[in-house]
Amino acid sequence: MTTDSVFPGVPDRRLILFLAGMAGLGEFAATAWLPALPAVADDFGASLGTIQTTVTVGLIAFAVANPILGPLSDRVGRRPVLIPAFVAYLAGCVIAMAAPSAIWLVLARILQAVGACAGLVVGRAIARDLYDGAALTRIMALITLVFSVAPVAAPLIGGVLTDGAGWRAIFLVAFIYAALLLPLLLRLPETRPPCATATPIAALPRNYAAMLREPGIGAALLCSALLLAALFAFLVGAPAIFVQRMGLNASTVGAFPLLTMGGFVLGTILAARLAGHIHSHGLMRIGSGVALAGALAMFAMPAAPLPMLAAMAIFDLGLGLVLPVAGGTVMAAFPARAGLASGFIGLFQIGGGAVGAGLVPATGGVPELAVPGIMTMFAAASCLCVLPRSRGPGR
Fold this sequence. Notes:
- Helices cover about 80% and strands about 0% of the residues.
- By secondary structure, it is mainly α.
- α1 (about 10-30) packs antiparallel against α5 (about 100-130), α1 (about 10-30) packs across α7 and α7 runs antiparallel to α12.
- The two termini are about 20 Å apart.
C-alpha cells in the first residue's frame, strides 16, 4: 500500500518521519532529562537515587500501557487512541514544568509515559497496517534509524537547557515537540484494517500467552528486552558516573550520546540492508553477540569517559541490529492483531528498560563498576535467548 492513502501527495519518507516523530516522543521524554538528574535532586533537596526512581516509574507506566493501548487501537481505531494520548503527554509536560516536589514529577512522568507509549505502540501498528514481509522489516529499521536521533539529541538538548535555563526548560521543549506533531496527527486518517481482530481486555493474558508459544517470538522479545535493560542501566547510571564521580557538567554528559549512537545508527542501517538476505534469528544472534562484546569491553576498560563511550558504541551497534529485526519478527507474525502485537513488544522492551533502570539505584556501590557489570549480565542473557536455532519466521 502506498502512503497516498495516508498523506495524499506526500512521499513515503514523510510518513516514516511522522511515525518516527511519534516514537521519538518516548525517547525524548525518557532521555532528555537524564543529564539533569543531579540538578533536579539538588533543587528538591532529594537524593540522586530518589530522582532516579522517577525514571523507573515512567518506564513502568510506559510498559504497562503498551498491552492496553495496543489492543485498544485494534478495537476502536488508531486515531481515537493517539489523540487523547497526545493530550495526556502535553498535560504531563505542563505539570513537570510547575512541579513543586518529586511527587509531582512522578505524576508528570506517568502522564508523559502513557502519552508517549501510544505514539510508539500505535505507530508500529500503523506501519504494520501499511507494510508486510521484508518491507515491514525495512520500514521498522528506517523508523528506528530516524527516531534514533531523539536519544542522541535529547540528552544534549537536556544538558544545555539544564546549564543555561534550568531543568524545567526541558519539559517546555518536550511540550513544543509534541505540539508540532499534532497537525500531522489530525491529518492522519484511520489505517486500522477491517479485518483487525479486537481483543477484549480480559482476554489479554490468554492471548499473550498464546503469542509467546509461537516459534521464535519469545526469543525475539526476550533478546530485545534484555538489551534494553542493559541500555537503560547505562543511561540511568551515566549521571552518577560522569557528573557526580568525575565532575563533568550536564552539557558535556548530554553530548556523550553523539559519540555512541553512531553505532546504533550503523546497526539499523545494516539491519535494513540485510533484511531478506540473512535469517532474522541469525541477525539477532549477531547483534546480541556484538552487544555483549561492548559490555565486556566497558567492564575491562579503565573508568574514564572515552574508553567507556567507545565500548558503549560497540554495544549500540549490536542493539541497532537487534531492535528492528525483533520488532519486525513479532509484527509480521500477527497481521490481524497489529495493535496487540505492538503492545506486546512494548511490554517486554520497555519493561526490560525499567528493570535495568531500577537495578542501578538498587545495587548501590561504585557505579563505574556496577553499571558495566549489570550490562554484561543482561547482554549475556540476551545471547542465551537466541543461541538455539529458531523455528520461527524466516527472512
